[in-house]
Inverse folding.
């Protein structure tokens, strides 16, 4: 019996190295062994660390400080620091729940037809020739992530080039999505830390030296995490380069309407590429611009040269989706479709969207002013030059750790803060924290 | 329809070689031509045998997806599409396993409507769920499956992650197997739900079949099943249908389950349950979970994928879970963390709506009891049309053939014993839509249509081979 207990403890000790069990948890485990065997077939699985982005919220939730601030995940907060469900979304939901003609039957593998049509129109423009010529295959997916994953799986199976070029830096989940889909990931220069702006020369060089036909991931607007977007003139140069090299653009559009406040303006880069008649992929998310985060609503559109190609592409997308989750969830897509197809609701949405975008722009101004008034060393103008939900502060991971420990500010270790999580009330606290970090931590 | 890919081909030549050109495309006749507009596929290049120069300039307007072929329609979901297109008034959709009322209407449970109204009134937000899903849902779903007092739950040995209904939960498990048990096989029943093999194929998990359905008896080939399980390499995953086997409706008896567990333990295999019909098979949630609970009570580690599509009628909400029962709480913690790592690059976090509906119903004693009643009603209607179908067949078939296998089967489906040609006859002649393996969904049958269906089955069985 002693030997058995020793063996058990040794096994657990091995697991301990891979995990962060507390001593009491170990004791509980020792006393509750199953009847048949003590060894687990899962013994070789280590404990994975928390997701670097979503894990910030996990850590935030554990903090009991009253002054804690969550600037981690990109979820909009009101001036009162509360999550927001748009009025127009509540309205749409009420209509849906009270509509007795609706049921919960499986929707098609490709999702709701009207949702798909409306989504394509939203990003490509209602008069897009690509849409009128039936050259766009659109499938409803699980928000931005799901759209990227389905698109990547499709390309890994059907496209001759297996490498995708992503910006340096980019959203933390991008490389994992593409790698698990079976694509190789390379990077192209994007952010210039010295200017805290775009390294355009580096970008052109790197895309210029990419192999012909390679996939290029482009952030349609409000680049995540830097907030640095190319100008339209720069976009045009990029388009010419990309088309001349036959690179395949794959747009990630997670902030349409959220960046500038205008849906059309934020879609301009995508529409430029479609206007030249070429092919591209677009992943759309309604998580931020409609506040539908948890409903997981998005769409993947593949703009093809010809209608019959689009039709065949759609059929192959179904083969990717069916073994992954069979068909997408109905609720969020129904909310979106209800809003997009109703003139008044659509208009109301644009107003609420603009309010969110403007509040963020005002937070940028307030933070900038607060740092200026504190005389915080450095040039902080990038805070008001960058666009969208995030600011790439330029703070290093040591400074970030300091801000978390001393000021209970939660953000990702790359120095990215979500402006959406700030309020007039909390800006001074953040400014104090940044000031302290910059002056005391190197 | 827009012009498809076009290439402009210019050939300058004094003596064209007529044989090289496709006549209908170029309308040969003249010797000299400058350009030809070509509708269609890849441009090909022509050489002439003459001494003249041939210059080709192709303005490539060809899609990079040009070579992609049209995929065939899904064998199950495609049935409903075909049904919709049929204008015959006698048509009957016995394809996909979605419950229908006696009036053949889709059914949203009253308890679901109540839950949704509660949710609307409480005005909850739409923030991201954690990667593993809604905490209240995960707790409720594991308790529903194992029973709240079950040691596996008390000892925190179950890793539960909310998944996209049954399919999504199976896929997460498959991804876990691929990553942590490379080379390990999944054994699937012959036959099984059509999408199982697609899931494992896409997850790159090898699979092989174990004998299950015996066409001679229209019953279970139990010896074959045990034999194949024992012959598989040690440490294989054995995919078992917790209850109401899809597509056959044939379930092992409790005694047979014990022997299956023995065989699996003997070979250190890992049981992998697909539970899509808990409560729907017998009408009792606990009874339908008995196979899973048997294995858990033996201290085995196992995987269980759950779906609320049928038993709560939440088909379109995509709500389910993957549960991994481990030998320790520590292992469960680690397994859960790795499942999260697989979910994040697939869809980040699962949809909140369906999860809240389930949590609200299971967490509210009144609603929970109402659910049990509605479920008994649904399962009861299916049992009663099953009986009526059997009675109608027996009344019309005087040959003395034993159709009792229809009554012994359980759940939404019945394996009629019809082959592909006979199933096609059901559709082509009788406008009865079903899957090619002879499976009919009794959930789509009304008592009013039992006689018609009986006639169709008898005709197809005897007059078509």
């Amino acid at each position: 019996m002693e030997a058995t207990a020793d063996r058990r403890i040794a096994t657990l000790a091995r697991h301990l190295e891979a995990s962060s069990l507390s001593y009491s948890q170990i004791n509980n485990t020792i006393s509750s062994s199953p009847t048949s065997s003590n060894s687990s077939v899962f013994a070789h699985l280590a404990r994975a660390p928390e997701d670097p982005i979503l894990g910030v919220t996990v850590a935030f939730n554990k903090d009991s400080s009253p002054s804690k601030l969550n600037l981690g995940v990109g979820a909009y907060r009101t001036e009162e620091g509360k999550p927001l469900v748009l009025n127009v979304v509540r309205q749409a939901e009420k209509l849906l729940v009270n509509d007795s003609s609706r049921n919960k039957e499986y929707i098609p593998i490709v999702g709701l037809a009207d949702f798909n049509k409306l989504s394509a129109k939203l990003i490509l423009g209602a008069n897009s020739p690509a849409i009128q010529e039936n050259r766009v295959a659109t499938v409803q997916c699980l928000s931005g992530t799901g759209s990227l994953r389905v698109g990547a799986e499709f390309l890994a199976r059907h496209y001759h080039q297996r490498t995708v070029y992503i910006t340096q830096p980019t959203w933390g989940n991008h490389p994992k999505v593409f790698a698990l889909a079976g694509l190789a990931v390379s990077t192209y220069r994007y952010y210039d830390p010295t200017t805290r702006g775009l390294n355009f020369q580096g970008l052109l060089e790197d895309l210029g030296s990419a192999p012909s036909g390679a996939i290029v991931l482009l952030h349609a607007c409000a680049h995540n995490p830097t907030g640095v977007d190319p100008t339209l003139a720069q976009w045009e140069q990029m388009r010419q380069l990309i088309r001349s090299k036959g690179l395949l653009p794959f747009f990630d559009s997670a902030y349409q309407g959220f960046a500038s406040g205008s849906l059309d303006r934020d879609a301009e880069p995508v529409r430029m590429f479609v206007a030249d008649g070429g092919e591209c992929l677009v992943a759309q998310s309604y998580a931020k611009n409609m506040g539908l985060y948890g409903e997981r609503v998005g769409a993947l559109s593949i703009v093809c040269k010809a209608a019959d190609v689009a039709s065949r592409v759609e059929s192959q997308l179904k083969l990717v989706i069916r073994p992954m989750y069979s068909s997408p969830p109905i609720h969020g897509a129904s909310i979106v479709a209800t809003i997009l197809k109703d003139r008044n609701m659509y208009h109301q949405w644009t107003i609420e969207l603009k309010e969110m975008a403007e509040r963020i722009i005002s937070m940028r101004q307030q933070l900038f002013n607060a740092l200026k008034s504190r005389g915080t060393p450095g040039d902080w103008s990038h805070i008001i030059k960058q666009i969208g939900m995030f600011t790439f502060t330029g703070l290093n991971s040591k400074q970030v750790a300091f801000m978390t420990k001393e000021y209970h500010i939660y953000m990702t270790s790359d120095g990215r803060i979500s402006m959406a999580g700030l309020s007039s009330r909390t800006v001074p606290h953040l400014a104090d924290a940044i000031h302290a970090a910059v002056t005391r931590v190197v | 329809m827009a012009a498809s890919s076009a290439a402009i081909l210019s050939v300058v030549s004094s003596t064209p070689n007529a044989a090289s050109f496709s006549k209908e495309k170029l309308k040969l006749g003249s010797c000299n031509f400058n350009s030809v507009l070509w509708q269609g596929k890849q441009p090909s290049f022509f050489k002439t045998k003459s001494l003249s120069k041939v210059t080709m300039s192709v303005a490539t307007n060809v899609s990079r997806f040009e070579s992609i072929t049209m995929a065939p329609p899904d064998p199950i979901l495609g049935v409903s599409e075909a049904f919709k297109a049929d204008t015959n008034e006698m048509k009957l959709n016995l394809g996909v396993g979605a419950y229908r009322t006696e009036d053949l209407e889709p059914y949203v449970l009253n308890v679901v409507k109540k839950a949704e109204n509660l949710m609307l009134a409480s005005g909850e937000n739409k923030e991201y769920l954690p990667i593993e899903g809604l905490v209240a849902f995960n707790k409720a779903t594991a308790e529903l499956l194992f029973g709240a007092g079950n040691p596996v739950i008390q000892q925190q040995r179950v890793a539960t992650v909310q998944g996209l209904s049954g399919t999504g939960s199976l896929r997460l498990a498959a991804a876990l197997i691929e990553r942590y048990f490379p080379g390990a096989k999944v054994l699937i029943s012959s036959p099984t739900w059509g999408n199982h093999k697609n899931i494992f194929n896409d997850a790159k998990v090898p699979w092989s079949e174990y004998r299950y359905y015996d066409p001679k008896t229209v019953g279970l080939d139990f010896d074959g099943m045990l034999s194949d399980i024992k012959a598989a390499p040690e440490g294989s995953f054995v995919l078992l249908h917790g209850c109401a086997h899809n597509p056959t409706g044939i379930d092992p008896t409790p005694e047979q389950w014990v022997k299956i567990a023995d065989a699996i333990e003997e070979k250190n295999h890992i049981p992998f349950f697909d539970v899509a019909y808990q409560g729907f098979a017998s009408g009792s949630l606990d009874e339908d979970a008995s196979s899973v609970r048997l294995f858990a009570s033996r201290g085995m580690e196992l995987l269980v994928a759950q779906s609320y599509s049928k038993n709560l009628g939440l088909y379109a909400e995509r709500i389910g879970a993957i549960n991994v029962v481990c030998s320790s709480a520590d292992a469960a913690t680690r397994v859960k963390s790795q499942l999260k790592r697989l979910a994040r690059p697939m869809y980040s976090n699962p949809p909140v709506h369906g999860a809240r509906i389930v949590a609200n119903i299971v967490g509210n004693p009144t609603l929970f009891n109402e659910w049990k009643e509605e479920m008994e009603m649904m399962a009861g209607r299916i049992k009663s049309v099953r009986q009526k179908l059997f009675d109608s067949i027996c009344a019309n078939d005087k040959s003395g053939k034993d159709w009792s296998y229809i009554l012994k089967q359980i759940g939404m489906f019945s394996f009629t014993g019809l082959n592909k040609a006979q199933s096609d006859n059901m559709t082509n002649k009788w406008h009865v839509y079903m899957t090619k393996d002879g499976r009919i969904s009794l959930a789509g049958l009304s008592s009013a249509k039992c006689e018609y269906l009986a006639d169709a089955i008898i005709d197809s069985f005897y007059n078509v081979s």
Remarks:
- Residues 1-37 of chain A have pLDDT under 50 and may be disordered.
- The CA atoms of residues 363 and 419 of chain A lie 7 Å apart.
- Chain A touches chain B through 100 residues (CB under 8 Å).
- The longest strand of chain A covers residues 136-141.
